[in-house]
Amino acid sequence: MTNYVIIGSGAAGIAAAGSIRREDSRNKIQVITDDPFGYYSRPGLAYLLTGEVPQEQLFPFNQEYYRELNIQLVKGCVRFILPDQHQLVTSNGSYIQYDRLLLSTGASANMSRVPGVELEGVVKLDNLEDAVHILKNARKARTAVVIGGGITALELAEGLAAIGIQVHYFLRGERYWSSVLDEIESKIVENRLIQDGIKIHYHTELDEILGKKGKVTGVRASQQQKQVQVDCQMVAFAIGIKPRMDLAIKAGINTQRGVIVDEGLHTSQADIFAAGDVAQVYDRMSGEHVLDSLWRPAIEQGWIAGLNMTGGNYAYEKKYPFNVTRLGGLITTIIGRVGKEVLEENKPDGDADVAGIMRGDSEVWRKQSLGIVAQTFQESNRLRLYITPTYITGAIIMGDQTLSRPLQILIREQVDISPIRKLLLSPQYSLMETLLKFWEDYTKKNA
Amino acid sequence: MEMEKKMMIRKDNPYSNKLGTMLRETSLKLDTLASGYILPDEKRCVQCGICSFNCPINVDVRSHAMRGMAIHESKCLTCGECVRRCPRGVLRFVIHD
Lengths: 447, 97
Ligand SMILES: Cc1cc2nc3c(=O)[nH]c(=O)nc-3n(C[C@H](O)[C@H](O)[C@H](O)COP(=O)(O)OP(=O)(O)OC[C@H]3O[C@@H](n4cnc5c(N)ncnc54)[C@H](O)[C@@H]3O)c2cc1C
Description:
Chain A is an alpha/beta fold. In chain A, about 25% of the residues lie in helices and about 30% in strands. In chain A, helix 1 runs parallel beside helix 8. Chain B folds into 2 domains: about 1-35; about 35-95, Alpha-Beta Plaits, CATH 3.30.70.20. The interface between A and B is large, with 45 and 31 residues.
């Protein structure tokens, strides 16, 4: 008898339950979660806010699926792991025995420490409960202030604007998401936000949230030397996330910025595995352990961890991180290394609005690569590539997505681009045409 | 001395095991708008469900998308609504010659 226990019902946890069941049809699988809604599409929360999708649509699996998987879903919060006894302690004081344990506790939003954060009307977007809470509060709000950089802040700003709320978006820095986007890309996104009626305030540092009778009534902020005040009924934060690794730390498991795992997703403690946002996974390419906050890698890690929990010996092959997102209504694909600075621990990466990792973010993106080429076409379509003498190592494709699939493959397969390197580097040639032609030849050759 | 076992790589789809019961197949032949099929790239899918929500004939597009399974014209109008609405560019319409 092997007792499988998974902490967390997110992307990694549910994928792990699936792979355990595939290999082991008999033994008990328990998933313990403190999310009252169980498993749903977390990235889909952004579209619940914009009204593009109703709440009940966010659940990809029906009851039948869970019945067939034959997992036991336990609602509750795990407080301690006792590795020597192979036991967990939950918040209601009960003990749960495990033989193999998966930590897939995800990450949670960092909260600001400015005075007033405890007021009603201060929100974040971690889970479905938060989204429901925002939508409920939004009915009473006319104006909102959004704080933070990265994807979630933008989703909050766009979601609230879509509801009809006047949004003020505060940036500490001089442009949007400067750790990943270049100046032109930031500008393209910012212009589209402005078109949607969002007011962007640059170089703006929130000092205090003002309130009356326990509710938000406004904010006070500094704009360089100037003081500003904005009346509002809601303040939304998306200032980065932190892996939920307190359980691991208390249990003496090796952690750094996340829970350190090897390629088989084992932690430093026997019989305990970790996967998803909480895990700091080994990246062969750099030889380092890195954090991602990405949906698909969480699923793939959960899948491999589950296989190994049943006695498998599979490696999680960390590939170039890849994310598709929508920024200011433009589909944007980010692949591989696109950053301007080498990431070191605790070293500010130059973006005042991004502390550490954000959702939909990967530390690998901030790793430097050689030669950059970029072109904008038809106003809001943009293509930016990072190339070494032989490979493309990173790309940002904003707007027109014709090249996003080809580039995904050229980067992943490390296709030798030296025959077109000169063309790629000469500004008088169209990047789009050069790459499309190269892609056509490549697919013909490999057909 | 114990030899370290070489780790293996596995490339199967995390959701393919439950396919049989997940997808409601239909044998109906529809009046399609174009001859072709919808091809998803499951690596881009975040399971938000916008595709299924917008399908005029209630095909569970997401179930196909997250498993990387094509949707053929026998159960799809080929109206392209899901392709257009997907916020992640997961779906592609492949036209038969
Ligand atoms: C609004 C939003 C938009 C996003 N957009 C994108 C995107 O566009 N693309 C992308 O790739 N990624 C995106 N992400 C990130 C993506 O959702 C995460 O990378 C992914 O969900 C990580 O999966 P996980 O299983 O590691 O953690 P989670 O999905 O966060 O699940 C963690 C689970 O653990 C449970 N838990 C934690 N601690 C305990 C405890 N002590 N006891 C019991 N249960 C516990 C939680 O309740 C939860 O069920 C987005 C996230 C958010 C919030």
